[in-house]
Amino acid sequence: MTVLRIIVLFLLAAVAEIGGAWLIWQAVKEDRGWLFAVLGVMALGAYGFVAALQPDANFGRVLAAYGGIFIAGSLAWGVIVDGFRPTTWDVIGSAVALAGAAIIIFAPTAGSSGTETAG
């Protein structure tokens, strides 16, 4: 259940942060109005709370791993919402970032038996 919880929380955090940033981008760059900016700020605030729900108590580890999720999620958001077409290098870079995130979060920590996840 812990692995599922970690994955779900990372996905929720990605939607909140990327969605919030996108809303602010729309307000500023696309003149969509201040309501978009306010909703974006609220979504970014929600991201902070969702990230804090991760079972791992190490802020640096959680945020470092989230960086990989953010990279992949940002590209996926661009494809789904904005019609962005990633290059092969975008996909490879995203896969490397996700692999790094998985290593950070799921690798055994000092003192573990090697079968436990971090956190």
Give a verbal description of the structure.
This protein has 119 residues and is mainly alpha-helical. The protein has one domain (2-106). It is 76% helix and 0% strand. It has helices at 2-29, 34-52, 59-82, 88-106. Helix 1 packs across helix 3 (59-82) and helix 3 (59-82) runs antiparallel to helix 4. The longest helix is centred in the first third of the chain and has 28 residues, at 2-29. The protein is flat, with a radius of gyration of 16 Å. The protein starts with a helix and ends in a 13-residue tail after the last helix. The relative contact order is 0.15.
Short description:
With 119 residues, the chain is mostly helical.
> Roughly how many Å apart are the termini?
13 Å
* Main beta sheet: none
Number of helical stretches of at least 4 residues: 4
N-to-C series of helices and strands: HHHH
Count the domains: 1
Q: Which strand-content bin applies to the residues?
A: under 5%
Q: What is the number of beta strands?
A: 0
Helix content: over 70%
Protein structure class: mainly alpha
Mean pLDDT reading: 91
Shape: flat
Gyration radius (Cα, Å) is 16 Å
Which runs of at least 5 residues are low in confidence (pLDDT < 50)?
none
Membrane topology: Multi-pass membrane protein
Protein name: YnfA family protein
Subcellular location: Cell membrane
Keywords: Cell membrane, Membrane, Transmembrane, Transmembrane helix
